[in-house]
Automatic annotation (TrEMBL):
Protein name as it appears in the record: Alcohol dehydrogenase
Cofactor dependence: Zn(2+)
Domain named Enoyl reductase (ER): residues: 12-360
Pfam families in alphabetical order: ADH_N (PF08240), ADH_zinc_N (PF00107)
Keyword terms, alphabetized: Metal-binding, Oxidoreductase, Zinc
Organism: Streptomyces nanshensis
Membrane-spanning ranges: none
GO MF annotations, alphabetized: metal ion binding; oxidoreductase activity
SMART domains, per database record: PKS_ER (SM00829)
Family: Belongs to the zinc-containing alcohol dehydrogenase family.
Gene3D superfamilies from the UniProt entry: Medium-chain alcohol dehydrogenases, catalytic domain, NAD(P)-binding Rossmann-like Domain
Organism superkingdom: Bacteria
Length: 362
């Protein structure tokens, strides 16, 4: 029987979010209803609110979530009621050319729940953020979007793997393939950048250089494992990174801002044959111009990282285990725990740079 629960919606472009009653249908084939325990406030949710993703309002916001499977639809084998899960937005198909080639983290036909959730007031269909919509007491997802992890972990911590933290860690470990003894520079020390720093240390990098324009973020980056910091308001970051790496540049540079000027810095701050990883998300109008001879002459790799090139079924349990062993300080990403009706204020704090992550706790 369909259920009515509270959820946070974005009714229109740049309008304040509000808590509404939403209808969650019974799960159909291959679907699951999840009782959400915690959901992080991610910058992507703000993009949805601002109309930066698309104009399919109203949106049911929230996607960095963990919770317990309440019910599943017919033919569902991935999870069962009672499983503690982290939600992901890349339920792989298993059939596309990437999946058939053994690269499911590049799946080109990911899917979400087929049934819509709706507004109780007028029956309007909701567009769930990243196919999840977890600023709600319960949400409907494809069963493949649920990844079982150790139920002993704090849900407020576990849910952050669903987007930003996984994107940053994966950018270093999966996409950048950072190895022991490497030098790594991370440009942009928000949530994704700090996760990249934590991932670099986890991978055994000898030198991790954090670059930002905000002194507060640089101090936070140090707590995540940065060995050196560069305030790019006062110092040329390319020259600073070279100086800190014997004049050569870093082996891997992670660009976690998504702007042409910072990408150019990343390009020139890497060593010959080094790697640049773009994990910051640019806007459609941005353009980049580089001398083609420099692209050829510097060699190496220029990569983009999609969701940290992660495979949730492989990566989420592993990272939770590392956290439980004390080797990955995921708890440091949780700045504050808030109620469902505080999401709009959390966006304000995010915009001001006051938080790493606000987390809605149910």
């Amino acid at each position: 029987m369909p259920q009515e629960v509270r959820g946070v919606i974005a009714p229109g472009k740049d309008e304040p979010v509000r808590v509404e009653t939403i209808v969650v249908p019974d799960p159909g084939p291959g679907e699951a209803v999840v009782r959400v325990q915690a959901c992080g406030v991610c910058h992507t949710d703000l993009h949805y609110k601002q109309g930066g993703i698309n104009d399919e309002f109203p949106f049911l916001l929230g996607h960095e979530a963990a919770g317990v499977v309440e019910s599943v639809g017919p033919g569902t084998s991935e999870v069962e009621p009672g499983d503690f899960v982290v939600l992901n937005w890349r339920a792989v198909c298993g059939q596309c050319r990437a999946c058939r080639r053994g690269r499911p983290w590049y799946c080109f036909d990911t899917h979400n729940a087929r049934q819509p959730m709706t507004l109780a007031a007028d029956g309007s269909e909701l567009s769930p953020a990243l196919g999840i919509g977890a600023f709600a007491e319960k949400t409907l997802v494809a069963a493949g979007q649920c990844t079982k992890v150790d139920p002993e972990v704090d849900p407020a911590v576990a849910g952050l793997l669903g987007c930003g933290v996984m994107a940053g860690i994966g950018a270093t470990v999966n996409t950048g393939q950072v190895g022991r003894g490497d030098s790594v520079a991370v440009i942009g020390c928000g949530g994704v950048g700090d996760a990249a720093i934590a991932g670099a240390r986890l991978a055994g990098a000898a030198r991790v250089i954090a670059v930002d324009v905000d002194e507060r973020k640089l101090r936070q980056a140090e707590s995540m494992g940065a060995t050196h910091t560069v305030d790019s308001r006062a110092t040329d970051p390319v020259e600073a990174i070279r100086e800190l790496t014997g004049g050569f540049g870093a082996d891997v540079v992670i660009e976690a801002v998504g702007r042409p000027e910072t990408y150019e810095q990343a390009f020139y701050a890497r060593d010959l044959a080094g790697t640049v990883v773009l994990v910051g998300v640019p806007t459609p109008e941005m353009r980049l111009e580089l001398p083609l001879l420099d692209v050829f002459g510097r060699g190496g790799s220029l990569k983009s990282s999609w969701y940290g090139d992660c495979l949730p079924s492989r990566d989420f349990p592993m990272l939770i285990d590392l956290h439980r062993q004390g080797r990955l300080p995921l708890e440091k990403f949780v700045t504050e725990r808030i109620a469902l009706d505080e999401v709009e204020h959390a966006f304000d704090r995010m915009h001001a740079g006051d938080v790493l992550r606000s987390v809605v706790v149910f």
